[in-house]
Amino acid sequence: MARDVYADLRPRFVRYVAWGAIVVIVLGGLLVLWQAPGTDGRGYAPADALGTSVVLVAGCVFLWRQATVRARVDEHGVTVRNLLRVRTLEWTQVLAVRFGSGDPWVLLEISDGTTWPVMAVQRADGEYAVSEARRLAALVVRHGEGQEQDGSGPAV
């Protein structure tokens, strides 16, 4: 079955791990807050319970954000939603797609001389990530300023 060339790019491994960790944190936090006896069996003080809850919620928000990184592609460009920032680029702004063997995720070379990470395509996903990087590179060549290198296909 052919994959839609404009389907969102999303990581697999980190998404599954993050959602699983959220479940463990929520269940573990509830267990600790409701079942653990606290100091000398008197239960937790309200400030302790609140502090613990704030830390657990912050951890869950971080993991949720990690689980929802993505890159939306269409005929006009790519919108990259990373852990902390979102950036929309037109195809003409993207010069190349890099995914070297030591890179944890794809990097876009931008026409302003900078690079922009695409955490949606992560090395931890193995061959799936390589194929997604190639798909992104092909879109750059098709719609933008990206050039094929040595005639063998998009630079990845």
UniProtKB/TrEMBL annotation:
Keyword Transmembrane: yes
Entry's transmembrane regions: 16-37, 43-64
Keywords: Membrane, Transmembrane, Transmembrane helix
Positions of the Low molecular weight protein antigen 6 PH domain: 69-136
InterPro entries the UniProt entry points to: CFP-6_PH
Record bears the keyword Transmembrane: yes
Top-level lineage group: Bacteria
Pfam family for this entry, one: bPH_6
Protein name in the entry: PH domain-containing protein
Organism: Sanguibacter biliveldensis
